[in-house]
C-alpha cells in the first residue's frame, strides 16, 4: 500500500468517527492521528467539503 493512500484512509476514518458523533479526542485515539493535525483535518473538511 502506498503511504499516500494510507494517510487518506486514516483521514477518512477520522472524519467518519467525528461525523458519527464521536468526540475528537476519542476519534484521534481510535485512528492514531496527532490531535493537532486532526483538528486541522476537520476544519479543512468543513471549509471545503472535500
Description:
The chain has 50 residues and is mainly alpha-helical. The protein has one domain. The chain has three helices and no strands. The protein has helices spanning 3-19, 24-31, 35-48. Helix 1 (3-19) runs antiparallel to helix 2 and helix 1 crosses helix 3 (35-48). The radius of gyration is 10 Å and the shape is globular. The model has no long low-confidence stretch (mean pLDDT 88).
Find the count of extended strands (DSSP E, 2+ residues): 0
The figure for the number of domains is 1
Shape: globular
Task: Please state the average pLDDT score.
Answer: 88
Structural class: mainly alpha
Radius of gyration: 10 Å
Unreliable stretches, pLDDT < 50, 5 or more residues? none
Helix content: over 70%
Summarize the helix and strand pattern as letters: HHH
Q: In percent, how much strand structure appears in the residues?
A: under 5%
Query: What characterizes the major β-sheet?
Result: none
For the record, give the distance between the C-alpha atoms at the N and C termini, rounded to a whole number. Answer: 22 Å
Oligomer: single chain
Number of helices: 3
Amino acid at each position: 500500500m502506498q503511504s499516500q493512500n494510507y494517510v487518506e484512509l486514516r483521514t477518512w476514518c477520522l472524519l467518519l468517527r467525528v461525523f458519527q458523533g464521536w468526540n475528537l479526542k476519542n476519534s484521534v485515539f481510535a485512528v492514531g492521528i496527532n490531535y493537532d493535525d486532526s483538528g486541522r483535518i476537520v476544519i479543512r473538511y468543513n471549509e471545503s467539503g472535500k
